User: What shape does this take?
Amino acid sequence: MLTLDRVHQASHTLKDIVRKTELVLSSNMVDTCDLYLKQENLQVTGSFKVRGAYFKTAMLTPEQREKGIIACSAGNHAQGVALAAKKMGIHATIFIPSIAPLSKVEATKRMGATIKLVDGVYDDAYEAAIAYQQETGGVFIHPFDDTDVIAGQGTIGLELLCQVSDLDAVVVPIGGGGLIAGIAFVIKMLNPSCKVYGVQAEDANSMFVSLRKNKRQCLKSISTFADGIAVCEPGEMSYTLCQQYVDDIVTVTDDEIATTILTLMEQQKIVAEGAGAVATAAVLFNKLPVEGKKVCAIVSGGNIDVNILSRVIARGLLTTGRLTELTIEMLDKPGQLKEVSTIIADLGANVTKVVHNAGGENTDIHGCFLHVCMETKNHRHLFEIEQAIRDAGYRIVKDNGIVG
Assistant: This one.
């Protein structure tokens, strides 16, 4: 059973292992509330997961350590287990789903753990790890559905209340539910008036669905680039704790997550992975009743692969109207490209690419299409450019093929 004493024991065990991460007040991201960011992305392994993984491993008996430890993870728990195993001289075998970023896999290997990649998502890696545990007799370190793991994650709640004692709300990412279970338990035990909200990716919302149906649900499929919270079924223990202590759960889209990663980078100089950005996304996109409140969003991790990061930045720019493409229908005659370029330049946008194609079926025999890629300020700026192009007598082809 989870107790405050157990969480305090975890805090004592971890005091020389993990960082007491910064709680930073964001001064320019939102104007509807006081938003604090708990920077677990700066934890020793780049994620909060080391807290629970290390404490659980530290509680093993010498006989259990001798048998070795086994884990499954999308990458962050893997690094926490590998670090604990290295410091305690224990052999670790870790099953990682093939969707995990290469950077997380390589970081785990560098700590000396044996890695086994499994096709599929977290739940597929979990099944493979359990089968291996039964075969070898090693100790399985669950990433979220374990009392000691949850107690370790709950140490974040203790830190929060020491850093800002009068918080009105804490917003927490949810995958399997271990992080929010630990934080919610501690917050509600020590400051019951503080709200605790969970956030999941819209297409990986197993805890969201489970709480609304009052029964744990296993999703048939999930889809999100936030690999750290891509879990088909919440944990039994974490689900029960969420039922008791979590006030509400909301979801955010991948586009909203990508936009938030970009915003955190630009405005706060914080690098967050997809799972690490969902809590902040829920605040930025007004998914929660936190107007005028003192709110903390947990930035749970920053282990994002650089290749994925470049795609996420591009998606964030597209979503916010700062990177866009226009297809303009016109007659193929001298001077038109210059005129369109002048309109765009005069309105302060930057053209990055131009492609000229001949017109197709059902267009004027002298017709052509001009595809323009450009950097704009926002959606309003884009609308002004489109309107100016139309006012000059040109027609814009939308994604659905309608010309206007």
Observations:
- Residues 81 and 193 are 34 Å apart (CA to CA).
- The mean pLDDT is 92.
- The first helix runs from residue 4 to 14.
- The longest strand covers residues 323-331.
